[in-house]
Prior knowledge:
Chain A: Belongs to the binding-protein-dependent transport system permease family. By secondary structure, chain A is mainly alpha-helical. Chain A has helices at 7-38, 42-46, 60-65, 70-100, 108-120, 125-134, 142-145, 152-163, 167-175, 180-191, 193-209, 212-217, 226-238, 254-269, 271-275. Chain A has one domain: MetI-like fold. By secondary structure, chain B is mainly alpha-helical. The longest helix of chain B is centred in the middle third of the chain and has 28 residues, at 174-201. The interface between A and C is large, with 56 and 64 residues.
Amino acid sequence: MQQDKTWGNRIFDFVNHGLLLLIGIVTVIPFIYILAVSFTSPHEVAKGGFILFPKEFSLAAYRYIFSTDTLIRSLGVSVYITVIGTFINLLFTSLMAYPLSRRYLRGRQPILLGVLFTMLFSGGMIPTYFVVKSLHLTDTLWSLMLPTAISAFNLIVLKNFFQAIPDELEDAAKIDGCNDVSVLFRIVLPLSMPAMATFSLFYAVAHWNSFFSAVIYINDSEKWPVQVWLREIVILAQSRIGDTSIEETEIQPLTIRMAVIVFSTIPIMLVYPFLQKHFAKGVMLGSVKG
Amino acid sequence: MKAETAARTRPATRSDKNLLWRDIIKNRWLYIMLIPGMLYFVIFKYIPMYGITMAFQDYTPYKGILGSDWVGFKHFQRFFGEPQFWTLFRNTFLLAIYNIVFFFPLPIVLALMMNEVRRERFKRFVQTLVYVPHFVSWVVVVGVFYMLFTTEGGAINELLYNLTGQKVAFLLEPGWFRTMIVGQSIWKEVGWGTIIFLAALSGVDTQLYEAARIDGANRWRQTWHITLPAIRSTIVILLILRLGNFLDTGFEQIFLMLTPTNRDVGEVFDTYVYTKGLTQAQYSYSAAVGLFKSVVGLALVLGANTMAKKFGEEGVY
Amino acid sequence: MKATKKKAVAVLSTLALVTGLLAGCGSDEGQAAEGGVQNVSIAIAQVGDVPSKGNEIQQKIEAYTNTKLDIQWIPASAYNDKINVMIASSDMPKIVKVQYNPTVTSAMRNDVFWEVGPLLKDYKNLSAQNERFFDNIKVEGKIYGVPVFSDIARATVIYRKDWFEKLNLKVPTTPDEWYETIKTLATSDPDGDGQDNTFGLMLFKKYNEDQYSFTTRLGVSFGAPNKWKVEEDGSFTPEFMTPEYMQVLDLLKRLYDEKLLNQDFAVFDSTEAEKKYDSGVVGIRVGVAQNGKSQQERLSKNNPDGVVDIAGLLGPNGDRVAGQTGNSGILAFPKSTVKSEEELKNLLSFLDKLMDPEMATLLMRGMEDKHYTKVGEDQVEMSDFDAFQREVKPYRDNLPYVEGYNVPKLKDTELGEKGTALAKELAEHAVPNPALTLYSPTYGDRGADLDQVIADAQTKYIMGKIDQSGWEKEIENWGNAGGNKIREEYAEDYKKQAQ
Lengths: 290, 317, 499
């Protein structure tokens, strides 16, 4: 929004921008370090120190990780479950959040309480495993997408976002002959793009990071998402020096571990900038007046 | 309303049931839309709930949950009777409070700061920078903090030494532990936490700001009267939900930061449960501790929700 | 619009269900199938990459042992959880690699796995191995699986030979010698760069925990027991209550006080320590015998003149070294999947065959010309070590093998051969941990806590946060909090097992 060009405002802007920049730098520097190390030669890294820019540039770490195509294939798996999984998430979550956002719906409170309850209490990994197994979902990618179809937290917050939309819009649409489903899809969702963008990001990141469920539910190594492999590389690096339950394991050089981190986080980090345009202001502008 | 209240004080008649049915049919699409989600919760959340009974058994994996012996409140009694209990409680509680007091407001402040930036490019640039640490695992975060704060050549300590001739064992001194933990959390999560507030902020009608400016309001008043109320309900709901996890301190971060010298202030329920549950295979015991935390969380959420509604806010339910 | 959306949801959900159902069918766990080919399903630990399906190594194994292998790789990142889930759901393959931890030992005690002890004598290779391997995996005196053999003892001093020569040092064996050596290394600028930047020794975070504990190893060499000592009267004494172990603590304390030890060792991560060793600023470390060779390789990359050498951590009389468990896991046979004793015997024979010369060579050396070349009558040399690590090591690390048994000698670098020979020698002098297979309910209940308390107390003592009387008080606390009960229970179980 535009502000008057007073001195007070100018100073504020200056300080604000400065602070934000400083915060931005402080938060991102360690990642620059990680990035730099991943592109540095092992020799320079061994000398120690905090590297921000590689003096001896090297792609050795990346060449190592990509030397087999398991990583590439698992990347495909991860992309698949992230895209399809997030779609399932958004569908299920918004379908359920919308009715719960209508204050006049009977039975709303008990249902919400029921949802809240699942946020706090859980039966645990083993009973859930039995459920997944009895549905014959084990060893399939669905075991990574269906048991996490709705996050209770996201559901509740989305419900609140839906509630913020003025009732007049719903009334107007119904007068025009829409039923509830089309109100959701034609009116509410388009107006909730910032919220939808936010939750797609949350869900997508959760899918991208999933590795534990994959190990528990999926036995076929060809179906493992990328995080399972990446964690293996990093874990082997953390084995105790000189003594592991695995004979003579070579400790992975720092460069490889850093390359793993870069590779496992950059793809998902890039999702956010794409979603940022949905955070544009004043989306509801004119919607009520019209 | 009055008719309904009157209706409730006499025995249910056919017309009450008709009213109920009428409402359901009127909103049939809404109920239909609820079906997939409800199915999900029933199948994947409520059916496995029998697992909670583990906390009241002497569970062993091969006997299964249905076959293990029932022991009632034995684990709870043991837990509360542990000499360590109060230390754990104090540590967990203090960290939880610190988190809510110091950590929770910061993403809001940061979001407001970012909201004030007019240049879209700069704003997006900072946003992208600030949420990067969220993706870095705790192992790396702790590693980076080690490099900065160790007394053996850590950047911060070297600086301190040059300025004051003293070094501070940040990583070993119990007095610094909580500060380090909260500091790390802030660094790692503050950027990510702004996202949801930015989403809420983008729902604010910009014309309101225009109108306020014309009326002579400076930016502080605009923030106070327009921006904050717009995200107030988001803040409230997030706070309530946060209370549900009140006693959850996160295991990985603390586990990595524990040392012999700060264990007294650092050991929390989650790390305790890890030692008991995983390394000693005491599933039931750790389930009991988890259940205890959940019950406390539930009480807090219900209480906070009721309070919020008294203030006219939209709660969880 | 609404109709299509509804349809989409319906279709998606049905798709989910149908795909799920279809995926469920098709995988079958057969018994010994037609033609006498045995179906063997195994769940083992993933070690890096997963070999491609139908790869040559697996084919060779299948051909020799007349089996069809169905291998399920379990990532290390969630290994124990996965095993727990498998035990809980009785969803196990015929052979499963487990670790000797409370969940597994309690499962063994409760008859989840077959007992194989009495049957072992029928298998020539398995029964030819050192009894110690099998003793160390006993539960209540019974053997419930085949160990995945690893060295019985391999604690070695790995040191910078060039520095030792320059400063006229010998490998230390007594506490005083250790002190002097470390002091000299730290103060006499062995790398000659004029800077006070060398360490004699560096400690790191977990220096006194688990079977790889530095303090235990050093202590044993000085005469302390390996974790527990059985006294003449049958009672049990923990290592930290022995005077020899105190010598270790006092040594470290002295080094710390005189700033000869890295002051932040309590938070020093082992991977950071690794960096230091590789960059050549540390004079001595204690590690695995075979690591000498790789240490030299890594050091040479950064410091071409550095020379590494190894010596067994054997103490002043050259005859005491800390023994280890001797296994990196146990191959167990779940009763829920292995239905008959006959099937069990077939599986044991499968494992036994893996130690025959042809298979042992395959597992330890790889395939001729692909991974190694013959360089003598009974000697081979690795030609493609990377390929070996990728293709063969995953199998080798999970199946029974013993270096030097039924396999041609490996021509290696001097340090490599020395390491292998040293590991063998150390096995002769290994001091075992008498409590390794004993059962103490109190230890199961709160053992980890108590271990932690004492480990912390040791660190505090070294750092000077508590003094001698403080340390003794900690020991007393340990005793009262359950330590004394553990001692009694071990003594009792020991008596029982000895009968």
